[in-house]
Amino acid sequence: MTNPISNVLKSEVILAIGTDTTGNHPIIANYIMEAIHQHGVKLLVIDPRRIELVDHATLWLQHNPGSDVALINGLMHIILKENLQDQAYIDERLEGFEELKSCIEKYTPEHVSSITGISEEDLHAAARLYAKADPAALLYTMGITQHITGTDNVKSCANLAMLCGNVGKEGGGVNPLRGQNNVQGACDMGGLPNVFPGYQAVTVDEVRKKFADAWQVEGFPSTPGLTVTEMFDAGETGQVKAIYVMGENPALSDPDKHHIEHCIESLDFFVVQDIFLTETAKLADVVLPATCFAEKNGTVVNTERKVQRVRKAVEPPGEAREDTWIISEIAKRMGYTMPATTPEKIMEEIRLLTPSYKGITYKRIEKGGISWPCPDEDHPGTPVLHVGKFARGKGLFFAIDYIPPAEEVDDEYPFLLSTGRVPQHFHTGTMTRRGTGLNRLCPEPVAQINPEDAEKMNISDGDYIDITSRRGSIKVKIKLTERSSPGMVFMPFHFHEAPANILTHSIVDPVAKIPEFKVSAVKIKKAA
Amino acid sequence: MVRLTIDGSEVEVPEGTTILEAAEKTGIRIPTLCYHKRLPPIESCDMCIVEIEGEKEPVCSCAAPVSNGLVVTTDSKALHEQRTANLKKILKYHPLDCPICDKAGECELQDIVYEFGIEDVPYESRKVKRDDTYSTSLIRYWADRCIMCRRCVTACLDLKQIGALEIQGEEENARIVVDPDKCKSCGECLMVCPTGALTENLSRYKGRPWLVKRVQTTCSYCGCGCQFDLNVLDNRVIGVTTDVDTGVNQGSLCVKGRFGYEYIGDESRLKKPLIKENGALREASWEEALDTVAEKFKAIRDQHGPDSIAGLTSAKCTNEENFLFQKFMRAVIGTNNVDHCARL
């Protein structure tokens, strides 16, 4: 997030696009509710599903899934036509405005209405609501990113926010809500194929030299490595022979399950380090038992870029060991000694090599977290990014054209499937499906469809249906709800007994390599 | 700014401050029970009453805003007597079943009764025993312990905008009723309940608050970064509690954060390294497992080059672990083939 969560209390309008916040980020939803009901903040929701936020919204745009770029271009078209943009901000702080302007010229309300399914009247109302607010916060999650145009969608969100002068401002911002407790930190720490810690690019000579000197090795490859979806594909073609997985469950979380299992089987050697024998671990040649968050010390970074402590509360079960110990032991056996292996000492090494973390010490965050960038030990951290000027100097508009989703509905596969989470479970269910508590509340997978569709197919609430895509088929219980719009099916992906990712396709965004989990074409029939 | 006098001291506070908050700022403590800093004033317990010069009746300081020139008295014989009487009224129907109550030791009612030194309360059991119910299977409602302070109802409606709870019945028959279709089991009601009327119905292991070790940490689920305390007894996590002054969540949690801790001590946790032999996984020693991994990695790297190995680090692991993992892939294996599930 460019801004802290509590900043929504200072907004005039909150635009929530592609985020089921009450279900997936309930604590952020608390702040949205406080903003609306105690501070009079208006909420604009853009989502194909009638999510709970819609019940609190001033305006809801129910657009066709995957039409986000067209929609945002359409809003910007109206904003420019009505001269509602923040021209002084654009002139002073941004570049690429003319290119943007000429690109969105063709996104007339009439044209955009035909792509998105939203009336011209609502397009005008939404454009005015967002543009006239000062400031307006934009929040998004996977509803924006999990498309083949995920990168374009994110850039479009940034375009809209910058056009109205909402970046670098209290109560404004472009705010992705992170879905895992340390997905931000995993990125910050260089758990990405193109960057070292602190987003220092592997393609830059000085960066590679700095890390080579610090780690006392000869050098590193100067080209980015493979992304998660690519590395499994490369396993199938034989380019990759071994994969080492720490705390992930790609056999359930990745698109096109049958394909990924085949990729894993093609490997010469597969190692999984986890706390449970997950669907992925079962396929491994060696499984290494690790510790969970309650059994270790360390830090994690929340969606506000705030570095916070994790503290050890209990001893691990059996012979399970900390991931840092396991990694260091393997390294040692391969002839490399990791000098720092306790969490606090590793943090000292991180600080040395990561400018944005330089001022963050365990001592400083003992009582509360600090948001990076934090360049020195006297720096208070940076809750709001891009104040005064953008990190890159001038902010850059991107001229982006609309591209339809990879798979569209047709006569054979007339329903549109979107996957996501339910409030009671998390990701592949590895943690939340243990024990009894959460399973009492949500014991089994349930797909959601609109009662109107159900009636046409003679399906009742609680019936079992077969959902079939071009990749495969699953049998699942059905719930009828107005939250799912006609023509759409929603399904959680937590459940191994009805894995939604048997149905999804593996065509990805060309830049971010993110799969299009929000749009797959499927057909439905009552199960035999 | 507004100037007023509290117990003889001149105080200056911003407009819109309540008398209770103004007193707190000056270090004067007024007894409260239904007041909760995250909730709007409820005024159900009448414990925070204060006298205002020129006013006939005492007022609830939690709801009364300050104004210029107010002269406030927070403690007097009359106030003490009235507060004691109010507290006795609350206690009349509250069973003193503290020995079997989960809340004993950190019960706000227990604390305030102790503070007032009340010894002689003629407990009148209700004419109709109120049955215990379950808001959901995770939250138990002990109706007879409920003092009708309305904190839970207010929290569900005002903080969460859910409104799953309401009061039905009057006087001694009043009780909290839940709409199971609306309740999300977030446990906001548990957080604010000042007595043992709402208790967590999950952990099979119980421990008195003073026997439990509390360790503050960050939740392991989504990216909100909520802060909570793991409650530990005999090396086992038996619950999660929160502090209203700590972290972005200010005491709130979602259903996963509050109740999703069972996996930590789950029997099916991996306890030994496993190695696949003839298509099946068997237990192995750390020595054997680590040697196998290191040898295989070395052999594959030497034969096919470093880019023939790839690694997935984790959005569930700490910064320190992620740092070490990518360092391992880059410095030891010699490849940039490292990623994690940010995209999924």
Q: Which overall shape of chain B is indicated by the principal axes computed on the Cα atoms? A: elongated
> Which outline of chain A best applies?
globular
Helical amount of chain B: 10-25%
Q: How many domain units of chain A?
A: 3
The number of distinct helices of chain A, counting runs of at least 4 residues, comes to 18
Largest interface (C-beta under 8 Å): A-B, 147 and 109 residues
For the CA atoms, what is the radius of gyration of chain B? 28 Å
Give the quaternary arrangement of the chains: heterodimer
Given the helix and strand composition of chain B, which structural class is it?
alpha+beta
Low-confidence stretches of chain B: none
Total beta strands of chain B:
17
- Span of the ends, CA to CA of chain B: 52 Å
Largest sheet of chain B: 5 strands, mixed
Quote the distance from N terminus to C terminus of chain A.
47 Å
Please name the CATH architecture of the largest domain in chain A.
Answer: 3-Layer(aba) Sandwich
Strand order of the largest sheet of chain B: 2-1-5-3-4
Mean of residue pLDDT values of chain A: 94
